[in-house]
Design goal:
The complex is a heterodimer of chains A (about 150) and B (about 300). Chain A has about 150 residues and is mainly β. Chain A contains two helices and nine strands; from the N terminus they run βαββαββββββ. Chain B is an alpha/beta fold and about 300 residues long. Classes of the chains: A mainly beta (about 150), B alpha/beta (about 300).
Chain lengths: ~150, ~300
């Protein structure tokens, strides 16, 4: 991983994740498991933004099928996803809250079966789309998306 | 499984079957001949376990299982997933009680046989709710258009919460919540009632509303739930049902209680024809029989264990 602050070159194929809330890019890097990809990743912190004042940007040079958009949508569906091919933006993806997420967040209810059962995935289901509420599949405990 | 996983129509079918079982027990005496129910109880609950076992025995099936985690492989550290895979090789259907929330769902996901949630911590106790609904339907003749009073600990009582959720789906239900301030129904339940314009009222004294009720669901008010002894002493009598309070009630009102009761219903109410809490236990057996039959039939329809 290389952290480049300025003059980041164009990528040939991959994604540019724009309008990330300033300071969130590193946690996004972890949650998207980008360390597992053997490709160029540029993390740009505190870039100037007309819309947000300050923002982070992630550039990922990878096969365009490799990024988990569901995880991204769960974390922040206001992020702009630009799909790059041959150094040009070919698509902008709208992020829709996923119906179900697996192993992105952990259930914090100490009475939940996930706290003791070995190898059990932490699954959350979108219970209320309007209020953006996710609940643990097993104990139905509400998860606060912004507290994870 | 929660009762809300069934549609109102599916619940009606289940209750029709339960009522047919009540009328013609003999007809079902060999329905589950050769079938085995495993009762996997990771925490003791003698009443629920015996109700399941009675249900299976009434259907001509047999039962096996354990009634305490200490008697199972859980003490050796076996996971729920592994236990249910093993049990699937022994039995045709399983009823599971577990102190951890969601454990029966983990079992159902991994299992090749149907798994019934017989209570998972403070989360769900769906067969109790089915029992409550069947009792009301059988004794009242309907699950709509009546006023139900829920009395006692409405904050922590999971049977009360599930019953409210289950009844929300029926027409013309009027809820009256009778509890001390400290043990009020949680806001998230009230929010749903408001959102759906379902009429409800919250009161502190049972006496104030007795004449309005068609059904009274009593629960225990535990002393340790109160902040101080003084409040407990001051309020406890408001939530004890006795002969005098029953005199104010409608002649056809029914009294329900998930049992065990301690002193919230005095024994002098037991002989009142409106006291339905022991009949409720009997309906618990019928509804569990209907559930076992329905689940085993659905397995048969799918062609084998599934």
């Amino acid at each position: 991983m290389g952290i480049i602050m300025l003059n980041v070159g164009k990528i040939k194929e991959g994604f540019v994740l724009d309008h990330i809330k300033a300071g969130e890019s590193l946690s996004l890097y972890e949650k998207l498991s980008l360390e597992e990809l053997d490709c160029t990743v540029a993390i740009i912190k505190n870039a100037r933004s007309n819309k947000l004042g300050k923002k982070d940007i992630l550039k990922v040079e990878c096969d365009i099928t490799e990024l988990n958009l569901d995880v991204l949508a769960f974390i922040d569906h206001n992020i702009t996803v630009n799909v790059i091919k041959d150094e040009r933006i070919v698509d902008k993806k709208a992020l829709i809250l996923p119906k179900k997420i697996k192993n992105v967040i952990k259930c914090r209810n100490p009475r939940c079966i996930t706290s003791i059962e070995q190898g059990l995935p932490h699954v959350f289901i979108l219970a209320d789309e309007e209020k953006e509420i996710y609940r643990c599949k097993y104990c139905e405990e509400k998860c606060d998306r912004f507290d994870q | 499984m929660s009762p809300l996983d069934f549609t109102v129509e599916e619940l009606d079918e289940l209750f029709d079957l339960a009522e047919d079982i009540e009328r013609n027990m003999g007809k079902y005496a060999t329905s589950c001949l050769g079938k085995k129910l495993a009762t996997c109880f990771y925490e003791p609950s003698t009443r629920t376990r015996l109700s399941f076992e009675t249900a299976m025995l009434n259907l001509g099936g047999s039962v096996l299982g354990f009634s305490d985690a200490a008697a199972s492989s859980a003490v050796k550290g076996e996971s729920v997933s592994d236990t249910i895979r093993v049990i699937s090789c022994f039995a045709d259907i399983c009823a599971m009680r577990h102190p951890k929330e969601g454990a029966p769902m983990v079992a159902a996901d991994r299992s090749s046989i149907p798994v019934i949630n017989a209570g998972d911590g403070g989360h769900q106790h769906p067969t109790q709710t089915l029992t409550d609904l069947l009792t009301i339907r059988s004794l009242k003749g309907r699950l709509s258009n009546f006023t139900i009073g829920l009395c006692g600990d409405l904050k922590f009582g999971r049977t009360v919460h599930s019953l409210i959720h289950a009844l929300e789906r029926y027409e013309g239900i009027n809820f009256i919540f009778i509890s001390p301030e400290e043990l009020r129904v949680p806001d998230y339940i009230i929010d749903v009632l408001k959102e759906r314009s379902i009429p409800y009222e919250e009161v502190i004294r049972l006496d104030d509303v007795m004449p309005q009720l068609d059904c009274l669901y009593m629960t225990r008010v535990q002393k340790e739930r109160f902040f101080n002894e003084e409040d407990y002493v001051r309020l406890k009598d408001f939530y004890i049902l006795n002969k005098e309070k029953m005199e104010q009630a409608k002649p056809e009102m029914m009294v329900l209680h998930p049992l065990p009761r301690v002193n919230e219903i005095s024994v002098d109410v037991d002989d009142d024809p409106r006291a339905a809490y022991f009949k409720q236990v009997q309906y618990g057996v019928y509804v569990r029989m209907a559930l076992i039959l329905t689940l085993l039939d659905s397995v048969k329809e799918k062609g084998g264990k599934g």
